[in-house]
Design goal:
It is built from no helices and eight strands. It is 0% helix and 52% strand. 16% of the residues are buried. The protein is elongated. The protein has strands at residues 6-10, 23-32, 37-42, 45-46, 52-58, 63-72, 83-89, 92-93. The protein has 94 residues and is mainly β.
Amino acid sequence: PPPPALSFLENPSNVTSSLGKTVRLRCRVRGAGEPPEMGWRRDGHPLELADSDQAQVPLSEDVWLGTSQLSIPAVQLSDAGRYQCWARAGGEQL
């Protein structure tokens, strides 16, 4: 069978931080076809206004590497939760 059009290369790891510090979570995906669209969820809810940096880099004519980094400045207790990176390309979503 052909490889999946979209696959995670790096998932965010568990992070423990001191209050007031900046926390950064990163994920990377490999996609075939169009560049992947990426975003973040916290406890299952989309983070619409998240402070995230994203980059899509072509590896070949139709293969892309997508990277997204979520920054949480001055982390507080209210920021605790389960963060997930999502990616979508060519009708496939992870």
